[in-house]
Design a protein that fits this description.
357 residues, 12 helices, globular, ten-stranded mixed beta sheet, Isopropylmalate Dehydrogenase, alpha/beta, 2 domains, binds nicotinamide-adenine-dinucleotide
Length: 357
């Protein structure tokens, strides 16, 4: 039976880049059924919730979700449950998408676009594995309150050993398919959760003796990422540290428009896992609707979908090579060029990738 993929383009540049990525997905896998659903501001505008029931049931019967991005300035300041971003919050929570994989690659020819010296980022290829459903973003109590006339606020950082173990296993497994080098990032000199984190990662490491595992404190990791980024292969860390470090790693490439991500859950088996695949960037309201956004992140997210949810490594690698060749041939979208007349549009860049498949 044909696999169904839920395609949720969302808002802003989401539809432009997601349609480009879905076309490439359908090109390499004509057997896959891509079914579109509403999520984000585009759903709210129709008087529905950010994640309508129909979209949720589409996701329920799909092998994976190809997601664009959600968010619109009109909703700034509203409570989370009334904002477009609530769609993503619900999907991550309800499908328990605990493992966020963010590959960071600098394609040959793009070294000069990085804010670091070209020699430092040449050939850069690392993955940040971020725990996505635990830690300080979800722990309770989490509130603002007034005690004895003084305002205060509390967030709670909590991790249970099984939560650390499952993300550690994802990272060790991934490291095994790469250079067999894992860096676990924590703050064990201060935080109890980090001491638990390090203990569990070390215990899991006993099952992966072929993978070398080092531990870095988060402040040092932040420094080393810009000092010698080439040192890293797979980095695993908890939710908040991962949020910050993965954005830091993202700027190494020079454009957020090149960075894909996968969020994997508990459903399925390795290679056939249910997951949500999306660009790291947002809806980019400043360039939306002009066919100038870089579709690379969305196209590479589709490649990750093939690899992790459809067990199709061959086509995933094929797409990644086509993107690499497209950059090597000099194709560039607007954010990379000074003279706008030389830039390729979203659709022209996607066509250039498709032509190399
Ligand atoms: P953003 O990532 O949308 O934009 C930041 C900058 O990067 C902008 O200058 C934008 O033009 C540029 N950019 C982003 N993607 C690009 C691409 N593919 N090609 C070329 N340039 C690109 O971040 P923001 O401005 O902070 O957020 C805008 C909206 O997106 C907000 O409503 C925010 O909540 C939402 N958002 C959604 C997600 C998501 O859906 N996962 C993630 C981040 C932000």
């Amino acid at each position: 039976m044909a696999e169904t993929i839920a395609v949720l383009p969302g808002d802003g540049i989401g539809p432009e880049v997601t349609h480009a990525a879905a076309a490439i997905l359908r090109f390499v896998r004509p057997d896959v059924r891509c079914v579109e659903g509403l999520a984000g501001a585009v759903a709210l505008e129709r008087g529905l919730g950010a994640l309508p029931d129909e979209t949720r049931s589409l996701c329920d019967r799909s092998a994976a979700i190809l997601f664009g991005s959600v968010g619109h300035p009109d909703y700034d300041g509203k409570p989370l449950s009334e904002r477009p971003e609530f769609a993503l919050f619900l999907l991550r929570r309800d499908y328990e998408l605990f493992a966020n994989l963010r590959p960071v690659r600098v394609f040959p020819g793009l070294e000069d676009e990085s804010t670091l010296k070209p020699d430092l980022v040449r050939g850069l290829d690392l993955v940040v594995v971020r725990e996505l459903t635990g830690g300080i973003y979800y722990g309770t109590p989490k509130e603002q309150r007034c005690i004895d006339g003084v305002d205060e606020a509390v967030d709670t950082m909590i991790y249970r050993a099984p939560e650390v173990e499952r993300i550690a296993r994802v990272a060790f497994e991934l490291a095994r398919t790469r250079k067999k080098r894992l860096t676990s990032v924590d703050k064990q000199n201060i935080l109890e959760t980090s001491r638990l984190w390090r203990r569990v990662v070390e215990r899991v490491g006993l099952d992966y003796r072929d993978v070398s595992c080092e531990h870095l404190l988060v402040d040092n990791a932040a420094m080393q990422l810009v000092r010698r980024p080439g040192h890293f292969d797979v980095i695993v860390t908890e939710n908040m540290f991962g949020d910050i470090l993965s954005d830091e790693a993202a700027i190494l490439t020079g454009s957020i428009g090149t960075l894909p991500s996968a969020s994997l859950g508990t459903r399925g088996t390795p290679g056939k896992q249910f997951g949500l695949y999306e660009p790291v960037g947002g809806t980019a309201p400043d360039i939306a609707g002009r066919n100038v956004a870089n579709p690379t992140a969305a196209i590479l997210s589709a490649a990750m979908l093939l690899r992790h949810s459809l067990a199709d490594d061959a086509n995933a690698t094929r797409i990644e090579r086509a993107v690499e060749e497209t950059y090597a041939a000099g194709a560039r979208t607007a954010e990379f060029v000074h003279d706008a007349s030389t830039a390729l549009s979203t659709t022209a860049f996607a066509d250039a990738v498709a032509a190399r498949l």
